[in-house]
Structures
1.
Amino acid sequence: MKHFVSIWLLAIILVQSTGNCWIIAAFYLNRNRIANTVCVNRFEQIPVCRGICYLQQKLEENEHQQDRTPELKHKEVLLFFEPITTAIISIPPEIKRSSGIYISPYFPTSHQPPVFKPPVC
């Protein structure tokens, strides 16, 4: 899930940062339609711009839209620390209880130093 969200956010950032490229690509894909229907100079005998006026207008709109980034206001927060004193209550030590594990009296748990000696060469 994290992988999908990170790829999705990366794609959104890439699309937003390459806005001019998308406008130019859309212009060149639809250049004939733009020159015939939207261009300011479409009624002239010899059209010179072929829709470039429309492209410039869209690029300027995109530039103004990017300039309108929201102004972030910094908010100052006062942090403080107040030590809290608590009464110290002595807790009696726990009574040693058996853990419920069976320990055989025939199985030694500690070694006897005089019995266990390394071999002498």
Note: DSSP finds four helices and no strands in the chain.
2.
Amino acid sequence: MKIENILLILLMAVVTYLTRVSFLVLFTNKNLPTIIQRALKYIPVAILATLIFPGIFAPQGKLDVSFTNPYIGASLITVASLLIGKNAILSIVLGITSLVILRHLL
């Protein structure tokens, strides 16, 4: 491996580390305003939605909210199973199974 690539990887690691540690160092003993604390609680949900929704509503890169999109049906079945049964493993298995079945039917 070239030395430039190794240096680039090390530099990226240092930058990543510094950006993550900077929040701990800067805000450890400081009280954030209430509005910022409330907003920070929604970050995990927003990130998860950003990762999941494009795969459901735009599986081929274009928006598809039709009844022939098997990802929407499988997602609804998975969410319903999770809300009713409260069993994450079973919901994942049911979601994958329903996606396989819906892809063959639609």
Note: The radius of gyration is 21 Å.
3.
Amino acid sequence: MNNRYIYLVFSKTGTWLSKIIKFTTQDKYIHVSLSLDSSLRKMYSFGRTNPNNPFCGGFVVEDLYSGVYSKFKNSTCLIYRVPITEKQYEALVKELDYFLLNKNKYRYNLLGLFFVLINKSFIRKNFYFCSQFVSEILMKSSIYSSNKKSEFHKPMDLLSIKNKEFIYEGLIKNYVLYNNYTNVI
């Protein structure tokens, strides 16, 4: 029985890195995060650890309403809700707790971004980019399956999750209004 939900948040900001990735991939959304609740106040991913410093990256707990998202006012997002079982939820929380407890060990896999573009594996211990992280923990939690290894996943690849439910697409700054006036979530 599906009695829990997770939320996948695909986004695009105006950072120089997001512009480069968008240009090279031509993908609409170039970042992905996951949240355990619809408020999206705690979204887990790999990205900037300091919104003002593009060179510091690692495991991050993002907030859709602050940080890099508030810095770039025209940031856009696509949000899906995914029903999961209690067992999957517990496995996912266990994975997230491990990253939270050890967050200082992890770094952003900037080089891995370029290797995924040329379809070459490049793995460094404790280095992840956003979609590599999200796909790996979803696979470890039996929420998502793929023949593709996590280091080859781009954010848009996660749209292949079959039981996802569309929630919202548009400007991030408008999501708070949408979320306040709908009972979809």
Note: The mean pLDDT is 87.
4.
Amino acid sequence: MTERSAALVPAAESAVVPWRQSVKGGTIDDRRLAEVTVSIPAHISGISLSVPPGVAAECDEAIRAIASLDATHGPQLRPLATMLLRAESIASSKIEHETASVEDYVRAVHGVRSNSSARSMVRATGALDRLVSGPLDLDTMIDAHRRLMCDDPVDGPYAGRWRDMQNWIGGSDHSPRGAIYVPPPPDRVAGLMADLVVFAARDDIAVIPQAAIAHAQLEAIHPFTDGNGRIGRALAAAVVRRRGIARSVTVPVASALAARRSAYFRALNDFHAGDAEPIISVVATSSTVAAEESKVTAGRLAELPDDWRDRVKPSRGSAAESLLEKLAAEPVVTTEDVEDDLGLSVATTHRVIDRLRGAGIIRPLTQRTRNQVWGVGDILDELADLDVRIAARAREQ
């Protein structure tokens, strides 16, 4: 047996099933299509997996990097967990061609008018948070999907439910004719997802292979009408969190996957054929890069409060000192947040905000004249730079 052939999972089977358009459209070939070949993933809840030594070493390196980040910085830096959760959601959405800046995202978080991609990223954060913080079961997965898709203009009605229709990837918009991949029929979805959750709950498989295979299997099942990629990547993060490798932070692996899109998608296709090695390797090496660069970000964040105090020189117990402490834990606030949370008068609130703005610590994120949204420039810029650094290193792999 070669090293590459060692990381095998059961290959998907194929079946020919009847097909009929529910809404007439497309070419005459679309309308005449009467049957389609679907892929039916194997059940994986009881599989044994042998990971080749080279890939196993990559997985061990990823575990060390994630655990080091979590142990060193997770408990101390409250903003880090939120930042990395947002970074992962933003990057995961970019893989699905949803694009928005960090500041667009922040505006959407605070209900300020923003583009649809930014709003989608906010929903993705809610879905990811639900999966990594809740029990890893079908109800959690369905609720995460509901949070992701509830306001989607097209697939909102299907949020939080298994698909009841045949879907496909690529090819015609009107039928599976010429599709790159056709997932299993809808009547197979519930059973396959129940089997997947059993696999994801196992404790006798190495963590990174388990996370990678769980993600790839969800992609193969494609249980939802949309949002499968984002839920699948969130599931991988949830597996890592459940196994206790990271207790405080979610590593933004999707930033690396987005930079290696072609290799990532090829690895998912290889999984359909029964070869899990590529997706395990891609997830492992991407996790290492993301964790190591996140540790750099954590170190930079830890230095910021002292730098701010040097720039502002607040008196002990002053409103400026209180606001700096608040911003270290909550880098995006509104004017009303500052007034209410710190118990300040309107005049004092505006005065201390102006002082920190003049020192270059915060900047306005909207065109509002009332209840402005303020962001800590150093932290927002670091979040954007983290994505750039991860992507640059990932492209070198």
Note: The two ends are 26 Å apart (CA to CA).
